[in-house]
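Researcher: Structure prediction, please.
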Amino acid sequence: NSSMQLRSLFLFLFWFSTTLLYAQNDSTWQQKPTLNLSGFLDVFYVYDFNQPQGTERQPFLFNHNRHNEFNLNLGFIKLGLEHSKYRANLALQTGTYSNDNYSAEPGLLKNIFEANVGLSLNKKNNLWIDAGVFASHIGFESAISTDNWTMTRSLLAENSPYFLSGAKLTYNPNDKLEIAGLIVNGWQRIQRLEGNSLPSFGTQINFSPTEKVTFNWSTFIGTDDPDTTRRMRYFNNFYGQFQFTDKFGLIAGFDIGTQQRTKNSSVYDLWFSPVLIGQYSINKTWKIAIRAEYYQDETGIIIPTVTPNGFKTTGLSLNLDYSPTETIICRLEGRWLNSRDQIFKTKTALTDNNFIIATSIAIRFSETIKK
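Model: Predicted structure follows.
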C-alpha cells in the first residue's frame, strides 16, 4: 500500500510540475491580480429553557452554543487575491464557534478560518489545484450563517466537517458540472492526528441542470484514529436544492456513514441523518424557514452518549429573517429537539427534550482595495 501511495504521489508531482512549466509561457500570468478585503460578524443570544449549567449548551453543537449570554459566534477578517490564473485566501477568526469547533487544534491554528493558495492548471482555467486550509466540500451549510437558510445549523451539518486541510483538484467541464478530488489531513483537522500516517480522501460531484436546481454528492474516505487502532470511515453526503418559485425553495439532505468497529474488523457501525428545509420569501426583506431533521448514531461514532439507545434525535425549527440590506440579516429561531434517551442537560439532571429561542444579527462586508 505504501509503495502504491508513493508511486501515485510521484506521478502526481511529475504531472503537476510539467503542467506548471507549460503554463509559464502564458502571458496572462503577468497580469495584476485583484485584492479584496472582506469581513463577517455574527452576534447572538440564546435562551435554553432547560437552563443548563456551565458554558456550553450541548457537546454536539458548535454554533450559537451558549445559554443566556450575548456572545460572538463567528467573526473573521479576510484578504482574498483573485487572478485568472491563481488565487489565495487568508482569513483569521475568533468567536465561540472557533473555540468549540477547533478545540483539537493547538495554539494559533484555532484562529485560521481559511488559508489557501490555488493555481490554474490549463488554458481554459477550468482545472484548478488549491492547497491549504479551506471550507469543506461536504454539505449545504457553511460556518457563515448568512449563507444558510436557518440561523442554527442542522445536526447533519454540525457533525460533519466544516473545514479541511490538504489539497483539492477541481474541474469544471461546463457551467453546470463541477467535479473535485481531495487529499486531506483527516476528518476536520488542520494538524494531522498524532500517530496517524494515513491521509484521507474525498470526492465531490455538483450538478446544476438549471439555475434553480442543484444536486450534490460528496464523500470522505479515511480514518480519525492513530495507526494502532485504525478504524476506516466511509461517508456520503447527498443533497438537492430546488427553487420552485421566486418565493419558495426546498433543500433535502441525507448523510450516511460507516466505520469499522475495531481495527481490521469486518463489522461496521452506521450513522445517518435526513433533513428537510423549506424557505418562503414573504417579500424582499422578510423570509421564513422551517426545518425537520433526524440524526441516528446508535453506537456513538460521531456523537457518543453512553446511553442504551445512543444518539437518536428528532428536531424541528422555525426561522424568521429580517434583512434590510443584502449585507445584514437579523434572525429569530425557535428550535425543539427530542431524543430517545435523556441526553440534554438541565439545572440538576438530564432530560429527553430541549427547546431554545435564538436570535442573532449578522453582517458581511466586502471591498476591493486594489485592482
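Model: The chain is about 10% helix and 55% strand.
Researcher: Thanks, that helps.
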